Give the backbone structure.
Amino acid sequence: MSENTQKDGYSDIARALGRNAEVFDSGGIYSRIVRMVPRAAIGGEWICPASTDVVAAVQDACSVIELEKTLIDYQISGKSVLMIKDDRGLDQAPTTCKSVERIKPGTLQVVELFSTTKAPSLYSINGRYVHSQRLIIQETKYPPMRGLDSLCREYNRAMSFLPKLLERLQQPVYSMQGLATAMQNGQQSLVNQMIVSVDQFRSAMNTVLIDKEDSYSILSPNVSGVEKLVEAIQGNLSAVTGIPVSKLFGTSSSGLNSGAADNQRWADEVKHFQTRHLEPIYRRIAGFFTKDDVSITFLSVIPETAEERANRFKTDADNVVALVNAGIISTEEARQIMVNGGFVPPAPDYDTEDIDNDTTLD
């Protein structure tokens, strides 16, 4: 392993996969797959029992665009870096969090190591020194999208073949009397002229003009296997990425797969990504806004039915009542829990004295 590889924490595999960033920038199916789960994860709703203000503060500090690009870095290269920004110098650890900024993983290098743990104590970003406590780094040895580029090339190759196949779906056959003799006598130009004339008449006037002894027909090749081939490639992409075919390509579920099963599989995939990658980021940033232990609950990306919401409300309400009866929490804390869960509207933010004094009608 090279000295530079050891400095910035990259493995040789991650460096070799750097070309995938170019594939992503070019768009297409690869770009769509890489960004689908991070975009859905960031767009999902989440709650924090500590306070609704904490949720709002974290959302204000986190730019959706910065988060999405950061998580895409992780998908492609196996490493993502966020820098916590406040009003102090870059070489100091932050005491507040004003916002977060995405740092390209390739620009991050270790400057100093703790002598005891060998953990980085100071980083360099394009020549600027940054304290380790200012950074949120996620890294894995094997990037999640490793090998996806080759599968996407197979899919693109199959898709590029379809237009050519459509051009051949109707193959005209012109049976010409005396064709062999004409070819033997060197009359190829005459044969070509007759073929062009027949084709021009058919295109311009939708009429086939041929000699009485000749015949003209159109053959349609069998393309039944093409659809199965495309479905097999799509199924392989779905199996590798964990994204259902119905979500990945916008198709309806068929066969043994049901729409409900695809929705649940998609929700599980997004929830896993949120818990593994977004929750550490949110918890780290939330720690700047509250001293309490922050627990984060991600809501399902699938909208709840009225029945599911009612069941969840009953379960949460029963649990809260039990905590109040046991003297573990107060009624005010119980109400706040139900407000955070979206079951009870927050208390109106007004002063009753002001209402009593305001008797003016519009």
About this structure: Residues 1-17, 350-362 have pLDDT under 50 and may be disordered. Strands lie at 46-47, 79-85, 99-103, 108-113, 120-125, 128-131, 135-139, 171-175, 215-219, 297-298.
